[in-house]
Design brief:
Chain B: Pfam families: Fuz_longin_1, Fuz_longin_2, Fuz_longin_3. Chain B: One of its GO terms (cellular component) is fungal-type vacuole membrane. Chain B: Belongs to the MON1/SAND family. Chain B: Keywords: Autophagy, Endosome, Membrane, Protein transport, Transport, Vacuole. Chain B: One of its GO terms (biological process) is autophagy. The complex is a heterodimer of chains A (245) and B (672). By secondary structure, chain A is α/β, with parallel strands linked by helices. Chain A has a domain of 169 residues: 3-Layer(aba) Sandwich (Rossmann fold). Chain A contains eight helices and six strands; from the N terminus they run E-H-E-E-H-E-H-E-H-H-E-H-H-H. In chain A, strand 4, helix 3 and strand 5 form a beta-alpha-beta unit. In chain A, helix 6 packs antiparallel against helix 8. The longest helix of chain A is centred in the last third of the chain and has 21 residues. Chain B is an alpha+beta fold and 672 residues long. In chain B, strands 1-2-16-17-18-14-15-8 form an eight-stranded mixed β-sheet. In chain B, a hairpin with a 2-residue loop joins strand 5 and strand 6. In chain B, helix 11 runs antiparallel to helix 13 and helix 15 runs antiparallel to helix 18. The longest helix of chain B is centred in the middle third of the chain and has 20 residues. Classes of the chains: A alpha/beta (245), B alpha+beta (672).
Amino acid sequence: MADSTAAAPKPSSSVKLVLLGEAAVGKSSLVLRFVNNDFQENKEPTIGAAFLTQKCNLPTRTIKFEIWDTAGQERFASLAPMYYRNAQSALVVYDLTKPTSLIKAKHWVAELQRQASPGIVIALVGNKLDLTNETSEPADPLNDDGDADTTEGDDSSGDARKISTAEAKSYAEEEGLLFFETSAKLGTNVTEVFTAIANAIPETSLKGARGPGATQAGAGSGANDQSRVSLTGPRDNASKEGCAC
Amino acid sequence: MGSSPTASRSSSNNCIRQPNASGQASQADDHGNTTMTVGEDQMSAEEVEAPQEGMGAVKATVEDRDDDGYRPPLPPRPNLSKTPERPTTPGGLNTSHRRPSLLSKPTTAVSSIDIQTLSFPDGSRGTFSTPASRSVSESAALDTPGSMTPKGKHSQNGSEGDDTTSLMSYAPTMKGTGDLASLLNDDINAQSPAWRLLSSKADTVNPFEAIDYENTSLLNFENEFNEIAPVDSKGGNEEELLTQFKAKYKHYLCLSSAGKPIYSRHGDQNLINGYIGIIQTLISFYEGSKDPLHGFTAGGTRFVIFIAGPLYFVAISRLGESDAQLRSQLEALYMQILSTLTLPTLTHLFSNRPNTDLRRPLEGTETLLSSLADTFTKGSPSALLSALECLKLRKSQRYVINNTLLKARTEKLLYGLIVAGGRLVSVVRPKRHSLHPSDLQLIFNMLFEAGGVKAGGGENWIPLCLPGFNNRGYLYMYVSFLSAYDDGQDGEERPSTPGSSAREDEIAVLLISAEKESFYELKQMRDDVVSQLEKNGSMDIIKAAVRQGRPSTADIVPGTQLRHFLYKSRANVQYTMPSFNPYFNGLLPQRRLMNLYNNLHAQIHAKHSHLKVLHSVSRDSVSLAWSTPLFEFYCVAGPNASRASIAHGANKVIQWVKREEERVFIIGGAVF
């Protein structure tokens, strides 16, 4: 892993990001798409957690994401606090073809709001957009492919969506979360999620960037209001450019 | 052959309980014996009992089938007359040595459980005091026999105790070779020049090469690892799936004592539910009468059962493995489950609710269980010998690597390992704690076989329980991978070894801690270690060694007729072997070879057999197994290799291992 950000002309800072969500919703696939721009069919479940880094270039600064990709299985849940404890941002992922995964995602959001650093930026992400019919709208030649792979969906029309965009979006607004629907398989919206998070991270929490331990103090209660305020900005942005809804 | 699992329905009255089982199993032998459902007893096997001073009992068996017309009778065997106790009935001798498996408990320290008493890797063997400095087998051999007795003691039920008594007579490697040579180097295999001119009799014929008489064993083995589709909702495809299901050579089932399915290698729940019910009924019936069922045979299929607390494990095999071997495979699956849950959690789950569905807590580990199962089905020398393989390095080079690890060591480190493609490069450990091969087997399986960790990229932080170390709690393992091919020397292409998969060139740094918060500390240590290794050139050495791969048999012993061998050093619990190239490339040849090794291993470890040397001739190969308190040795040559030449080759290999001992094995290891 390249970890020398030293020579960057723009100010550069590390942001710790944690991915949470039910098993098999595509957390690792989102990360793999973001970090390596790659996708693996039938990826094996993550064991424990994987730690990856990826830089995200913003106009004014460079954000180096330190990503904790956690395993979704129930038995690893007790380890989660270790990963979100000092995180400045979190990606809570659900599978938009699986209603229980949104319930699980809501639990994670609640736990983060209760236990994580107060200023944490949370993005709610509905993954597997490729399994729905809607991908065709933004001129997507891979539509057929997406339909062919709808193995898990029961819906004969090829649209396996079980969670409407409106439902998830209204929940996200209520809780002040960033919201995206993505496809790790096709790459839809994946970078957008991370860019939006990078934009939403308040400057103040970037001060002591290097050590994640030190960051917490900076990201403390003071940053709270600011982050909530700044959330609205990027989200509007995001829904314009990214969200296919 | 009605060897499908359904056969168990009709033949369940065939069930034989372990202790008095002796004659029923028709073990599938890979040299074509599987086709002979009854014929095994008719095989004209010749057995020579040659009681020799210092060598113990020596059996040489020559198998020939009377159903093949073209093979000429064996040459006269001059020394037959010298063996008064030669059994006269072929049936009698068959029960004596061809079916060792049925008596199986793991017989020696080779089973994964027993092995744990031998601490890894320096031979300092935990409970009794051997100086850690003891390095090579020479010094071990020069010790009094007393130094070996603890091992015999530890293998509670092994035939190994007998070994210790006559240790001195053949312990030293070099001396032993003479014995073997003299034993086998008679003119028994003298052949006329005309005979030798027959091309089919040429020494250059390789094992398993002549496939004209190829039997149906291992037919369609290529499909063994194909997934069976799930039963569709209407059950319309059930017939077809059942056919696929029955075509598998190997099944592993795990169920709870309440009859809930937990894991099955093949088939989804709808397909296996019926079998689970039958199996559960069978096992419970014998459990109820306090006389547990250990295994039974239906047609050519062997069923072996392993009960661990609330869990029932069943291995169903048509590959002719012995009961002990199958049982140790089941134990490994059990260890994998423990590694996920820990023993207290498992016990707690079932004591609270005996009908717990364990699939949920185990969610996501099916791939680990399956890759473990597939490793066994493909045939793994490591699993067979319950030993580890090391990357061959010079002693001084390994010393530098060890020291680099030791120097970078952080407070929180418990074990530190560098592993290249499943072969150990270096290990550092606390003085008090050894690392158990069974634990390492689980780790290597997770990292190099299952692929889930590697595929994610990045660094990993994995909670796991190492049952051999402590089955009550979790340890935390830091893992990062380096590729042997990602450095500046990218220009040179990979060696064209189709047999070697990607796992062969992955180098992993594993740092294990008991502290769950120590990720960043261990990450720092890893960075230090890697940069230091790069600075002092060790990384290049490791990469070069990985790229080079295993030497071929011909590299080790030029001109030898041996095609492959396994050498296990008992004291180090490590083994070494040459490359599978060029003779055993691919799934099928490798499985055939492993079948052969399985048979040799089973026979030499059979209870009461006291075999020291086993020379086995079959239509498609000649093989030799040789067991001493210091090592176990198995080798294979083409069907026309003479005894003398194979013995000569064996001696050469053993001399080579002795010469290279501190390179092919990690002796001593690095302790802090």
